[in-house]
Amino acid sequence: MSKDRNQKNLDYYLKLRYKVEITPIPEEDGGGYDASIPQLGRMAFRGYGKTVDEALAHLKVVKRDLFERYLKKGVEIPEPAIEEEKYSGRILLRIPFYLHKELAQLAKKENISLNQLLNHLIERGLASLKYQNQIVDVSKKIQNISQWDKPKFEFAQFDIAKIPHHLFLSEELNDYDKSVC
Predict the structure, then answer these.
(1) For the domain that residue 16 is a member of, what is the CATH number?
(2) Residue 156 within a domain
């Protein structure tokens, strides 16, 4: 690789935002802070400092050095993992007035809140979809298994009585051997 390509790649990776963990170091171990990037290797991508800023600055130097080495050696550098979205548990749902009325009446009849009723109905609906997909998957597997029962070739059926006797017994066999056959 050319130096320009390494530099470009280095700049690219240095601009990526990896999740950093900051851990206080106990006073009996010298105090200060440890900054690491777990995704890249908590023990390798690690910086120390008396303050959080010093630990982050040291980690930045370590990260640059290791990225340069990795790029020179052709070691793949993973891009930052995408964090899952966080959900509040609240949604705004617009429904037709007649459906709202019917749901409210059902909730009142069941002596539960409208929120509890909607939660229950959504859970049942999701479970139904999940099980429906599982049933479809199992059905496909059963169809594949039933294919195994079908012979790939036909067996010829013979009437043993029609097969000439000399094919089974040699005239050279004694009476004991003939009885075993």
Answers:
(1) 3.30.160
(2) no
Model-wide pTM > 0.70: no
pLDDT tens-digit profile of 1-13?
444 444 457 889 8
- Rounded to the nearest 10 degrees, the angle between the axes of helix 97-110 and helix 114-149 is 100
Contacts 24+ apart (CB under 8 A), 54-58: 55/22, 56/20, 56/22
The boundaries of the domain holding residue 133 are 97-149
User: Strand, helix or coil at 49?
Assistant: strand
pLDDT in tens, 99-130: 999 999 999 999 999 999 998 898 888 888 88
Encode burial over 17-40: b for 16+ CB neighbours within 10 A, e otherwise. ebebeeeeeeeeeeebbbbbbeeb
Sequence-distant (≥ 6) Cβ neighbours of residue 36 within 8 angstroms: 20, 21, 23, 42, 43, 45, 46, 47, 59
Here the tokens at position 169 are 């017994």
Q: What's the whole-number mean pLDDT along residues 124-150? A: 78
The domain total for the chain is: 2
Alpha helices in 16-113 (DSSP H): 38-41, 52-73, 97-110
The pairing of strands 21-24 and 33-36 is antiparallel
